[in-house]
Amino acid sequence: MAEQKIKGYQTGTFVVGNRLLDPEQRSTQARTERSNTLTSGHRACQGCGEALGARYTLDAAMRASGGKLVAANATGCLEVFSTPYPESSWQLPWVHSLFGNAPAVAAGVAAALKAKGREDIRVVGQAGDGGTVDIGFGCLSGMFERNDDVLFVCYDNEGYMNTGVQRSGATPPAARTANTKPVGPEPGNVFGQGKNVPMIAMAHEIPYVATATVAEPRDLEQKVERAIGMRGARYIHVFVPCPLGWGAASEDTIRLARLVKETGIFPVFEAEHGELTAVSKIRRRVPVTEYLKLQRRFSHLFKPEPNTEVLERLQAGADRNIERFGLLADDEGADFPGEATDLARPPEKEQGPPPALVEPDTDSNTSMLLKETHGKPR
Ligand SMILES: Cc1ncc(C[n+]2csc(CCOP(=O)(O)OP(=O)(O)O)c2C)c(N)n1
Ligand code: SF4
Ligand SMILES: [Mg+2]
């Protein structure tokens, strides 16, 4: 079904009412028959982008597969906060894999279903960025290379959150984590490292690759539905803010997910068989500082005075994405009147630093809070 474009929206927040859409175009989350695959009672932090992303993704996948879905889940926050023994928040067949082998487990489930003649049942593998871009990468590449009939979803919160906010191969440059301290000439995470797994997935020329953020659930749902409608290896990389690990306010999760796209830091696109097929244009371009300043993991870039050299390097990275993916609309801003600052934190909240649940550079605090909220890290 062709996506119905939304013309109306609430200036300042980009909130879009489902009432503006034809009923069949409305979000899965707006339907009374949604499956609540990740239901209430789990232990995710308030404002957890990963919980939101998983729910959007799996509810859409359940709808698209007619409720015939199995999920294999790597170790990580999503698994830990959803399944403290003997409880579970999952309302679908769900299997926990190791930290590093969710793609292989998912591929095995798909192979078993094929052997049993049950290819009507679809398989999703899912993991955090650590389980995807780092330790699970070999299994993922194998799953791509064999073109296994699995949709693999990475929930990218840019670090190892479950174990106390360590750096991953998806942690952005300059970000502070428990093991990338803001000290020395290059404070925080180094530049020039890290893996772009959506691009690597494209290089495998698998049937479908897409990126999405939790700020645009309809876009994410449509990509999941498209992916479920295909066979073979498919990959969706979802940007999911982590209030605890990033030192961000819980209420800023959606704002951050919007800003990461509007700055060009995170390109939102689709690709089939290695070719780019669609990009989600920037509605109104925003400087990277608007995104960075809401997060304590980047606070060292603004005090005691702005680190202009590092900020310029980060802006250059976003500009490169904008150029590379053609993210600016020809009529940039024409359909979306207003100022770039519409997306920024309301002025009355700009008095001090964003409220952080913990100081992410205090390792013991982070670990303690994680234990209190999720149970023991695995
Ligand atoms: C082989 C192995 N190494 C390390 C761990 C500990 N461990 C569990 S989850 C995790 C990090 C998870 O990070 P990510 O995949 O990004 O998920 P997140 O918690 O951020 O959602 C680590 C290091 C483990 N379970 N197994
Ligand atoms: S630490 Fe981050 S990813 Fe984990 S539950 Fe909290 S907000 Fe979600
Ligand atoms: Mg992570």
Sum this structure up briefly.
The chain is of the alpha/beta class and 378 residues long. It contains 12 helices and 8 strands.
Strands, helices and their partners?
Blueprint (H helix, E strand, L loop, with lengths): L48 H16 L4 E5 L3 H6 L11 E3 L5 H14 L6 E7 H6 L2 H9 L5 E6 L40 H7 L4 E6 L3 H12 L5 E6 L3 H4 L6 H10 L6 E4 L2 E5 L8 H5 L15 H18 L37 H12 L4
Parallel strand pairs: 1-2, 1-3, 3-4, 4-6, 5-6
Antiparallel strand pairs: 5-7, 7-8
The protein binds thiamine diphosphate, iron/sulfur cluster (SF4) and magnesium ion.
The site of thiamine diphosphate has 20 residues, from helix 2, strand 3 and helix 4.
Describe the overall structure.
This protein is 31% helix and 11% strand. Mean pLDDT is 88; it is low at 333-342 and 353-370. Strands 2-1-3-4-6-5-7-8 form an eight-stranded mixed sheet, sandwiched between helices. The chain starts with 48 loop residues before the first helix and ends with a helix. It has a single domain (30-332, 340-374), classed as Rossmann fold (3-Layer(aba) Sandwich). By secondary structure, the protein is of the alpha/beta class. Iron/sulfur cluster binds next to helix 2 and helix 8.
